[in-house]
Amino acid sequence: MKGIFYSGDFFVLGCFLNAFLSVQSFSYARDNGTKYKYQTQGRPRIHVDDAQRVRRHRERETAQERNVRVNSNAEQQRRRRLGESTEQASARRLANAERQQRRRQNENIEERSARLAANAERQQRRRQNGDFEERSARLAANAERQQRLRQSEDVQQRSERLRANAERQRERRQNEDADQRIARRPANVERQQRLRQNEDADSISMRRQVNAARQRLLRQNEEDDQRAQRLRNDAEWHRRRRNAAHQTTGLALRSRATEANYLGGLNHRCSNCGALHFAFEVKQQHPDTFSDCCDRGRFNLNLFEDFPEELKELFLRERAVTPEERHRQRNFAENIRNFNSALAMASMGAQVDTLPGRGPYCYRIHGQIYHRLGALHPNQGEQRQFGQIYILDTEMAAQQRLGHLRNSTCDPNLMLFLSEWFSQHNAYAQSFKMMSEVEQLELEAAERENRSPTSIRMVFQENRERGVGRGQYVNPTANEVAVVYVGEDNDVPASRNLAVHLRQAEGSTLVNISDIDKRCDLLTYPLLFPTGAGGWDPSLVDRDGERITQMKYYSHLFSIRDSFNPILRAGKLFQQFAVDAYVKIEQNRLNYQRTHQRDLRSESYRGLQDYLAGEDISGPPGNRIVLASSHIGSPRAMQQSYQDAMAIVARYGKPTFFLTVTCNPQWREIQENLYDGQVASDRPDLTARVFNGKLKELCYDLFKRNVLGEVEAYVYVIEFQKRGLPHCHMLLIMKNEWKVRTVEEVDEVVSAEIPNGETEPEAHAAVISYMIHKNVALTIRIPRVCVMGNAVNASLNHCVIALLWNWTVTRVIGGAT
Q1: What does the alpha-carbon distance between residue 599 and residue 618 come to, in Å, rounded to a whole number?
Q2: Which residues form the Helitron helicase-like domain (predicted)?
């Protein structure tokens, strides 16, 4: 072999030897202590001179050259590792671990600190650039590796590890500031709650046994000073716990300090359906799921995921840019009930109460609600309406709808657009057109065959599929929702399905739609279910095969989520839909009690005096239906509630305070969660939820913190005002030492003064804003004490004081009245 020599620092062997050494290098290994043999290492052998030369060369290279070299080496190493076998990979890792262990044993403190800092920085960059899947895989691998290490360690290694962890955690906590400590504790509590929620009975028992053993071991090894300090800490903790309630007892009578109450935002999201909740709606046992939105993860309908974009633009007021778009959306919002009624295929009948005067819109009815379906053609002399209009062409249908007096304020162009859209995309509208086409074909065939046309009947089919995961809510077609039968009525299969005839028979009435029919909402509220998908019926079940009740279904629809929901943006139509949903739920419950009187054992109390008292028994004879006392609003429930209230008064004495708390539409929690262009009357769901949270806070202050004193008993009722806002009337019976008996005690509790604006700015602003009628001049002198009656008489110790609860004595509930 011929070598080539250079006069510089570089020495290169011959071509053959150079090519061979680029693949393999040789080293000597002792065999049986006497012989030597060559052994390949898988990488070239580097001499000391070569290492120094490489080090000098790397010191002179630029950052760009270094990046190119590092990337090239990484690519070569990756290809080389892909080609190695399992034995080679194990040998390489073992050699790397030994080399790294020797290097770490020889490094000093400064080198170790620099290495740990570089590793931490590199790991931090890698974690910041990783996505969710990489992070999940890394955490799973770390957990598995840590579990294997802990399983293989002995008692001494485990004790050493726990001692090192405790020392490291103690140092970390000593160096943290107040903000870090405040942030750490809730996170630890939440993490511990999640861990305990996922453990089973065996894990709970094992954890408690381990904790008890560890605590017993600690107490056995503690010294006398440590034991005395522990006992003092326990006694102090128990004392603070006992005295916590006493610190706030009577606080409203001692102090006029004002603190605004705020429930927080909708920051708690359901892990299953994404519904947003307030903090007071979170249960400690299930912090990530809720019962009101999806029954703690048992179903998720996703009903409005594919809502048409053309119609979505009408609900999203924030998207309106031009004056024409704003006018269109304003007209749609103001007349949304008229648009919905004009486009509906079924009619809704109810006695609507119209409130006199000005004020927020409120949809009120009394009596029963009916949903009816008519024939394909109107009777002689009547106008087409509801589903009968869909057999006309688009322009004629729009003119027919605008011809009704109640639709005179609707935008004609918008009515034309909606008529055309529903005629083309709504499955039930297309079914009416299909029936009209079949009728036309039958008339032509009868004329050719010189015979009388046969009867035609369209039957809406039932969906027999059960469960939320079987495609009930896929957009249907006209052939899927209805079938048109041509022939005698006897040829039509008997069914409970809805049927539409060509014309209404003389003397007959419209077809009533059952409250448990899924088509009831689809035919009555086309703007909310534009494609004909959705609806509730008894066959709807959750993931566990359990039936989804009507209340759970509508509660799921009313839940607030980040995704689009036309119901919550429907304004006046939302009020109508909510009232209709409640009536259907109530009617369904009443039907159950009507058909299950024997199961409810109503015969056993049919003649009891508490049932018959006050009822009209002079009506026509027949089967009397007895409502259970558990049915809210029934005569027996109302009578038992009254008897309970009277029994409380007889046992504990007359009430001391009469409190009234009314929902304020200007509460911060309501205003923050309204959509653009909405007012509080457009969101009865939001006002009810916020009022419920405020009422819970009030009850906590009265009955737990005892801000007015210790309460012996209480009774309260929640009502709704004429304009739809909820309010609460509450009677408090105080304990003897907290009863109001003298004029001085009245002055301590009841105040009709306007607070000083300089010393009490929060209370002054609340009273001026919420406690004074706008039409009363502020120059009128208001007396200090306001007691119901002409004078304070001898029975004042048992009187009911009318307390105008402005809540300024302790806190202003967001401006509560």
Answers
A1: 27
A2: 553-732
- Strand, helix or coil for residue 524: helix
Question: Which residues, at least 6 apart from 619, have a Cβ–Cβ distance to it below 8 Å?
Answer: none
Residue 665: phi and psi, rounded to 5, are: -65, -15
CA distance 289 to 296: 5
Q: Which residues in the chain come in under a pLDDT of 70?
A: 1-48, 241-247, 357, 376, 379-381, 385, 387-388, 390-394, 461-509, 601-623, 774-817
Bridge-based pairing of strands 726-734 and 657-662 is: antiparallel
CA 669 to CA 682: how far, in whole Å?
15
7, 277, 673, 688 from 669: Cα distances, Å: 85, 12, 7, 11
Half-sphere exposure of 309 (CA within 13 A, CB side): 1
Contact 42, 81 (CB under 8 A): no
How many domains in the chain? 1
φ and ψ at 214, to 5 degrees? -65, -40
Among 743, 667, 659, 645, smallest CA distance to 703 is for 659
Distance CA 215, CA 227 (A): 12
| Cα-Cα-Cα-Cα dihedral sign, residues 336, 338, 344, 349 | positive
The position carrying tokens 């969660």 is: 673
Q: Which two tokens stand for residue 456?
A: 């035609």
How far apart are the C-alpha atoms of 660 and 251, rounded to whole Å?
A: 20
Q: What are residue 705's DSSP bridge partners?
A: none
The answer as to whether 383 is a domain residue is yes
Tokens coding 415: 């009515």
- Domain range for residue 386? 309-427+461-473+494-595
How many CA atoms does the CB half-sphere of 397 hold within 13 Å?
27
- Please count the other Cβ atoms lying within 10 Å of the Cβ belonging to residue 398: 24
In a domain? residue 298:
no
Q: Please tell me the distance from the alpha carbon of residue 811 to that of residue 762, in angstroms, as a whole number.
A: 9
DSSP 455: P
The answer to whether 365 and 350 have CB atoms below 8 angstroms apart is: yes
pLDDT tens for each residue of 81-111:
888 888 888 888 899 888 888 888 888 888 8
Chain center to CA of 772: 37
In a domain, 285, yes or no: no
DSSP 33: T
Residue 524: Cβ-neighbour burial (10 angstroms; 0-12, 13-18, 19+): buried
Q: Regarding beta strands 711-720 and 726-734, do their DSSP bridges make them parallel or antiparallel, or are they unpaired? A: antiparallel
Compute the distance between CA of residue 128 and CA of residue 135 in angstroms, rounded to an integer. Answer: 10
Residue 557 near residue 577, CB atoms below 8 Å:
no
Task: Please count the CA atoms within 13 angstroms of the CA of 148 that sit on its side-chain side.
Answer: 5
DSSP string, 613-647: TT----S--SPPPPPPTTSTTSHHHHHHHHHHHHH
From residue 98, alpha-carbon distances to 105, 146, 549 in Å are 11, 20, 66
For residue 518, give the nearest of 493, 481, 486 by alpha carbon: 481
Query: Which 3 state secondary structure label does DSSP give 286?
Result: strand
pLDDT in tens, 660-703: 999 999 999 999 999 988 999 999 999 999 999 999 999 999 99
| Edge-to-edge order in the sheet of strand 482-486 | 482-486, 456-460, 499-501
Largest Cα–Cα distance in the chain? 130
Nearest one of 503, 497, 504 to 481, comparing CA atoms? 497
Overall pTM > 0.85: no
Residue type at position 784 = R
**What are the phi and psi torsion angles at 389 (to 5°)?**
-80, -25
Who contacts 280 (Cβ-Cβ below 8 Å, separation ≥6)?
Answer: 263, 693, 696, 697
Residue 559 in any domain: the answer is yes
